[in-house]
Amino acid sequence: MRTKLMIDGNAVYEVEEECLRRKKQAEQKPAPAGGNRFREGNQPHRR
After folding, report:
1. Quick check: helix, strand or coil at residue 4?
2. Phi and psi for 26 in degrees, rounded to 5?
């Protein structure tokens, strides 16, 4: 398992390359045809 360190100002993130690969694959899939405006994992804003 390979990881990358990402530095953003004072914050440091450790990201797995396998996770990045899966995320890119999921983004390349076409949106579902049913009018689902939220991607999996995203929650609508609550008021």
Report:
1. strand
2. -65, -35
